[in-house]
Automatic annotation (TrEMBL):
GO molecular function terms attached to this record: RNA binding
Family statement drawn from the similarity comment of this UniProt entry: Belongs to the IFIT family.
GO cellular component, one term: cytosol
Keyword terms of this UniProt record: Antiviral defense, Immunity, Innate immunity, Repeat, RNA-binding, TPR repeat
Coiled coil (residue ranges): none
GO biological process, one term: cellular response to interferon-alpha
Gene that encodes the chain: LOC100773381
InterPro entries per the UniProt record, alphabetical: TPR-like_helical_dom_sf, TPR_rpt
Protein name as it appears in the record: Interferon-induced protein with tetratricopeptide repeats 3-like isoform X2
Pfam families from the UniProt entry: TPR_8
Organism of derivation: Cricetulus griseus (Chinese hamster)
Length: 405
């Protein structure tokens, strides 16, 4: 293909409404947990809304250098859109086609990139701009995408814009409620309860919105009403991982850590992509262990047995979390920033040597630090592991000499 066509593509591609032009991630803000959360969402959604998440997954795969996998995700996005022969169906393909064009361009397959640009133009020529169109469907898709990426303020603006055209749309209303709920922690942001209640009225089957409302009511001192909503959501969506996770948060704030942990473990069983939840369960068990250590009867045999059980559970989930997928996306690891995981290094400054079981955890943590080029405590941790290894070798040799004598 001629250089003229390459130049024309470089002028057209920035006009397309898709993930490559939405500026979704701040530098260094994309963790490998995002891919897990997107995959979990794909499992939960009905076919009508899977395309949004497949498009986001394609962009994540592209950023991770997996271009062929990205193309396969886009094919899944196309399949997920119901084959209706109308303008709305064509509009729902625009984001996917834009992503195709960008990926093929970066792969150097310019004729294929041009083919998808032409498909976009064929639809958009019916409107004012030949390469983009203003419509609530695209605003809603951008809103859900930004919401999943943590760009809550911009997501809120997208949903508000969509609702101007479709004020009773349940999906846009739910998206606005979730975005507003997340922004409510900032003092200048509007209170989210009314938005959540309106979203529930428009979409009574959205159990995630229901548990978000429960958490807001708990914060307002209406815990009994919140718990009623939690019970109803768990009854209607007993295996929905995001509902279980938020319900766990409700019981954690209530102080019922055993119930909170039970719900998180249920969430683990309900999803294939477990890495974020392993970390969260690890933190919750550690929190429960600290709670028991502070009680007056911490020295009783029952308490000691329970604390040992919690310690083993904490270590097991820490081990599972440390066996996470390592991704080229990350300049850092989510796990390194968890105080409970940083605790792995604390024995470096102590006098006691770790057990063989704990040494395996430290080695995993050491590998993670090294992979992400973190130096904090790394040299000391390596020295500790080396000394432990030498101690074990000396002990084995000593035992062998005794046997020979």
């Amino acid at each position: 293909m001629s250089e003229v066509t390459r130049n024309s593509l470089e002028k057209i591609l920035p006009q397309l409404k898709c993930h490559f032009t939405w500026n979704l991630f701040w530098e260094g803000s994309l963790s490998s947990h995002v891919e897990d959360r997107v995959r979990n969402q794909i499992d939960l959604l009905n076919s009508e809304h899977k395309a949004t998440m497949y498009n986001l997954l394609a962009y994540i795969k592209y950023l991770d250098g997996e271009k062929e996998a990205a193309l396969e995700c886009l094919r899944q996005a196309e399949v997920s859109v119901e084959p209706k022969q109308d303008d709305q169906a064509e509009i729902r393909h625009l984001v996917t086609w834009g992503n195709y064009a960008w990926i093929y361009y970066h792969m150097g397959r310019l004729s294929e990139a041009q083919a998808y640009v032409d498909k976009v133009r064929h639809v958009c020529e019916k409107y004012a701009n030949p390469y983009s169109v203003e419509c609530p469907e695209l605003d809603c898709e951008e809103g859900w995408t930004r919401l999943k990426c943590g760009r809550n303020e911009r997501a809120k603006m997208c949903f508000l814009k969509a609702l101007e055209e479709k004020p009773s749309d349940p999906e846009c209303s739910s998206g606005l409620a979730i975005a507003t709920s997340r922004l409510e922690e900032q003092p200048e942001k509007q209170f989210a309860v009314d938005a959540l209640k309106q979203a529930m009225e428009l979409n009574a089957e959205n159990q995630y919105v229901k548990v978000l409302l429960a958490l807001k009511l708990q914060k307002m001192g209406e815990e009994a009403e919140g718990e009623r909503l939690i019970d109803d959501a768990l009854r209607k969506a007993p295996d929905q991982a995001d509902v279980l996770q938020k319900a766990s948060q409700f019981y954690q704030k209530k102080g019922n850590l055993d119930r909170a942990n039970t719900l998180l473990v249920r969430a683990l069983r309900s999803t294939e992509n477990k890495t974020p939840l392993y970390t969260l369960v690890m933190c919750r068990y550690r929190e429960r262990l600290k709670q028991l250590q502070k009680t007056g009867n911490a020295g009783s045999s029952d308490s000691l047995e329970k604390m040992e059980e919690l310690r083993q559970l904490t270590m097991e989930y820490m081990r599972q979390a440390l066996q996470r997928k390592q991704s080229r996306l990350n300049s850092y690891s989510d796990l390194i920033d968890y105080p409970e995981v940083k605790r792995c290094c604390q024995l470096v400054f102590g006098k006691e040597s770790p057990s063989a079981e704990e040494q395996q955890l430290y080695q995993s943590y050491c590998n993670l630090q090294e992979y992400h080029q973190r130096s904090e405590g790394l040299a000391a941790l390596k020295e500790l592991l080396k000394s432990c290894s030498l101690t074990e070798t000396a002990s084995i040799e000593k035992e062998g000499m005794k046997e020979q004598a």
